[in-house]
Amino acid sequence: MLLPREKRILEILYAKKQGYTSSELAAALHISLRTVKTDIKRIREELEKTGCEILTKAGKGIWLSYDSQGKKYLDSLLLGGECASSMDPKTRKYYIALQLLDSDTYISTESISNSMYISKGTATNDINELIPFFEKQGLTLEKRVKYGIRLLGKESQLRIAKASVIRKIVVYQGSQVSRKLQPFFEDLNIDHINAILQEAEEHFGFILSDASYSELLIHCSIIVRRIRKGKVCAIDETELRAYSEMKEWGICRFIADALEKSFSVHMTEGDRSYLMMNLLGTRMQEHIPAETYSWGDDGADSGQILEQWEDILRHAGDMFRENLIGDETLKIAMFLHLKAMFNRLQHQIHLENPMKRMVREELVYEFEVATYVARLIKEEFHADLGEDEICDIALYLGASLERERAMRNRQSPVVTIVCGSGIGTSQFFEAKLGRIFPEIQVRKIVPISRARYEIGKDTQDFVLATVPLELEGIEVLNVSPMLGERDALLIEERIHPERRQLLISGKEKYPALFALMSERISIFKCDCRSLEEVISLMGRRLIHEKYVKEGFIESVLKREELAPTSIGDKFAVPHAFEGYVLKTGVGLMTLKKPIVWGNEKVQIIMMLSIDIREQEQFREIFSELAAITKNKWAIEQILNAERISDIKIRN
């Protein structure tokens, strides 16, 4: 078996596909020439009969040679793993974080660097990069001369931080989650915990989304390991009393009792509270009919939270001219989601939304409505939502808007949907599917972890999977969770081959967007270096041309603080909150070089002076924005233009 550093040498040689000198390898890995030679000898022995070998030649260096069998071996070894390499600079620091989180005493930078095969300086830099992450988790990194460094914080915070680190290293969504997590808990049999969680799902009649299932599996594993090390969570009597009155407490007790029996450990009330805290933060993939849901089952504070949530929906619906308050399915689903989300935020549990980029690019209008909802949530509940949470809300809102447009009561083919990202994603997908294909009947929605057990050969016409899936003897169409145009064409080809062409529409013309542009509020090939500079320059131009009021620039900057307005593919659409628009228009700016805007690189800025209360126009603009970002020809024209008249979008 190859050691991590030996595997890294193979990664370097395979990526470059040409010779490396021993000195270059030594410099890249921060090791000596002698160590390089020793490692190369070991790797040669490991590669025997694999179809690949390491060759060396004076003047040329060291390189990999392989045949087709060897290429398959290397692809599987280096590219097919579920864990990010510990030698990868982007993830290496998280392996260091694991060492710090697992250490009960001070640990020296030298011992960390030796274990990671990196220099002491590199280890120090990685540790410094981890400080903001630890602070976000409520932990303090203590440094002491001659002793080293250690992490200080409550037991619950240390556990949450470790779960977060493992999430950043492992790609664990799918049916093989136990195998992927096992290397992080070598002294535990993860399959036993897997069986406990599956038994809990069946016993209590709920299904966790794949991401939440994996999350709970990690936390249960951490609980057992920490208890074995003599580490227990402190008891908060007030929190414990509140938990014991909730319906989920029975699930928590069931899992805790099973963990105690299976691993011969004792879970204190503090440990059970910690488990309950994480259980409440999960996303349960269940569809609750509005007419059967009982609000009183969710704790004493449900009534007040519901009233506040209804006010938010009513306010947002009024602002965007949408009937959000009238959608009981949205109200229930988001109410349950909010309670879980507030629990995570309260305990500093940060879950990344794996669909964030797709939501930002495909659901531009829904994301804008969700950002407004997030602003109202902050005012009402004093909770700061990040981009991941706003994307969750956008999916629920997207589902609601799709349901509103959907046609009903048509005979249909029967399908089963396999969806791995939780209730918001599955609701959005099902609703959009219903609008585009009202004749399709959805038999059931299942997570990928249960697909092979719950989908029979004769129970549906075909399966729609939003995650990669193959089922023996069953037709599976793999589609995007956003159900884009290509996916719709694929489904249309399957159920109505003769009508396929009806879905192909000419979206390469953007009349609403370009009708609102003017040379007077356009700036081309600008030298701005930051989003603040762009917003200030464009904002002053809009104010000067009497499109917006004074205060517009400050409002735009506040809107950016809530969530960046970059939407992918080089575009950003900065705009203010309501109350500043004097005249409708779209200011256009292009940049000579891209700048960082949130997590994106941006070179085309469309600053909006649009009243969000003009619903149809607002939705049309955002629809065209979502479409134009996918039009490479249009992007090229815009970037090359010297004036608005140079942009001629083809039919």
Automatic annotation (TrEMBL):
One of its GO terms (molecular function) is protein-N(PI)-phosphohistidine-sugar phosphotransferase activity. InterPro entries: BglG_antiterminators, HTH_11, Mga_HTH, PRD, PRD_sf, PTrfase/Anion_transptr, PTS_EIIA_type-2_dom, PTS_EIIB-like_sf. Keywords: Activator, Repeat, Sugar transport, Transcription, Transcription regulation, Transferase, Transport. Residues 184-289, 300-407 form the PRD domain. Residues 413-503 form the PTS EIIB type-2 domain. Pfam families: HTH_11 (PF08279), Mga (PF05043), PRD (PF00874), PTS_EIIA_2 (PF00359). Residues 515-651 form the PTS EIIA type-2 domain. GO terms for biological process: phosphoenolpyruvate-dependent sugar phosphotransferase system; regulation of DNA-templated transcription. This is PTS sugar transporter.
